[in-house]
Write a structure and sequence with these properties.
By secondary structure, the chain is of the alpha+beta class. Helix content is about 40%, strand content about 15%. The strands form three sheets. Strands 6-8-7-12-13-11-9-10 form an eight-stranded mixed sheet, sandwiched between helices.
């Protein structure tokens, strides 16, 4: 049952082949059996899940069930969930029970889904390996000595191991696509503003975007149909009609123009990764697509620009967690200054402190023009590269990550090396573009991901391209042994 897609489970539910209570109990049992190995969940909402499943069965019995009615899902612990711990992977919020639902949670509740629990994540979504959580590292189900990827590693590993058929994540520099690739599943970062950020705890507000994980592109489309849409409570939400993402999945790819950025395909790419890309291109050519080399000349500046802008925004966003207004408060402070200092130093982890320090520096008087302002100007050049590229092609293709999952602890003492894990994904965040990762093979028994970047609001197109690829290949059907 747990190897089925959401689309298949939906049919079973609506035809009453199974009940939502049976399905939910099955996943709760799997979480009990396997989560102690993988550490994917921070909170499991068993009682609430079974109650929601019972209500979903009543809706289906009344003939009012829709596609997602009764489907169990896991939610990243960055989305505020009414009455449930929302820790953001941090000691700072380790006792925070959210008093309201994020818009994404509201939308899934309205669609009739069942909340299995809240998944583990890098603290405040800062990390590329999911080793920076207050609740410990998430293990990769394909090799439990390896990272699951960050920051949404808990969600990705839970879906990969069959502990949930779908989950949510957030992507600031690749935090949906990178763990999706390392765990061998599908993950989508929508266009900036397409999915509401209301109730999603902020890391870098001009880059953060929520999106779905699932076992196939078709399932991503079904989840996006529920998640996407304008929200007047989010000032960055875009008021634009939402298409039916599932309706165009089977459109033919004849005449599709796929761009390969020459800056991505250099001698630094491993032979194995290059071979996996070549094999994928053979599939797309068979489907009628044409391949064209393009140039994104400022792409080498994406990572340094990101690591100026994201820390700058995080230093501002996380200033509210001071032990007075929000978050953990130290015991027996001597005075106000001691309260601020010790509350923040005791509750934030090393990676969060590092980024706050960098962000505070680049925003400081005398350095603002040299770093932050210059980075914003370069960001505009990176956006212009994509605008130019989409004059020539419909989608852009690349690997999702430069390598497969690495060993836990391997890059812990080398943050620069860790930051380069997101080298192919960051540019899409800087430009606000939709992008997804789907499985495209294995290197040394570990999965690798194929990234498709679309033009603004072209989620339907990249989902169509991904779905057609998955009709011709079976990489997305592989399942890790032992789970």
């Amino acid at each position: 049952m747990h190897k089925k897609t959401i689309a298949a489970l939906s049919k079973d539910l609506l035809t009453k082949k199974i009940s939502s209570v049976e399905l939910t109990q099955h996943y709760l049992n799997r979480i009990k059996n396997h989560d102690k190995t993988l550490n994917t969940f921070i909170t499991v909402t068993e009682e609430q899940a079974l109650q929601s499943a019972k209500q979903a069965d009543e809706v289906i019995a009344a003939g009012k069930g829709t596609t997602l009615t009764g489907i169990p899902l896991a939610q990243k612990d960055i989305f505020c969930t009414d009455g449930v711990l929302t820790s953001c992977g941090s000691k700072m919020l380790a006792n925070f029970i959210a008093p309201y639902n994020a818009t994404v949670i509201e939308k899934f509740n309205a669609a009739g889904t069942v909340l299995l629990g809240k998944t583990n994540m890098d603290e405040f979504a800062m990390g590329s390996s999911n080793e920076n959580s207050f609740y410990g590292a998430v293990k990769n189900p394909w090799c439990i000595d390896c990272v699951a990827g960050g920051s949404s590693g808990g969600s990705a590993a839970a879906v990969a191991a069959g502990l949930a058929p779908g989950a949510t994540g957030t992507d600031t520099g690749g935090s949906i696509r990178q763990p999706a690739a390392l765990c061998g599943i599908s993950g989508l970062k929508p266009t900036y503003g397409r999915v509401s950020r209301y109730g999603m705890i902020a890391f870098a507000s001009s880059l953060d975007q929520g999106g779905p994980f699932a076992r196939s592109a078709e399932d991503l489309a079904l989840l996006m149909n529920a998640m996407a849409g304008f929200d007047e409570r989010d000032s960055t939400s875009v008021e634009r009609a939402v298409p039916d993402y599932a309706a165009t999945l089977n459109a033919p790819l004849t005449g599709l123009r796929i761009g390969l950025p020459k800056e991505y395909f250099t001698a630094d790419m491993s032979k194995e990764m290059g071979a996996a890309i070549e094999a994928a291109l053979v599939v797309f050519k068979k489907l009628g697509a044409t391949i064209k080399e393009i140039s994104l000349p400022n792409t080498n500046l994406s990572t340094p620009v990101y690591y100026v802008l994201a820390p700058a925004e995080c230093s501002s966003n996380l200033a509210r967690f001071d032990g007075v207004r929000y978050g953990y408060r130290c015991e027996n402070p001597k005075d106000l200054e001691d309260l601020y200092k010790r509350s923040r130093s005791e509750a934030f982890g090393d990676e969060v402190k590092r980024r706050i320090m960098v962000g505070t520096y680049v925003l400081s008087s005398g350095y603002y023009d040299a770093y932050y302002l210059k980075a914003q100007k370069i960001r505009r050049l990176i956006c212009q590269d994509f605008i130019n590229a989409y004059q020539e092609v419909d989608v852009i293709l690349s690997p999702t990550t430069p390598s497969t999952a690495f060993k836990i602890g391997e890059k812990a003492s080398d943050p620069i090396s860790m930051y380069l894990s997101d080298i192919y994904t960051i540019a899409a965040n800087l430009a606000g573009l939709p992008a997804l990762s789907i499985p495209m093979g294995f290197i040394n028994q570990l999965p690798v991901g194929l990234q498709l970047i679309g033009n603004l609001f072209d989620e339907a197109k990249i989902l169509n391209v991904a779905h057609q690829y998955q009709q011709e290949t079976d990489w997305h059907t592989y399942f890790p042994e032992g789970f």
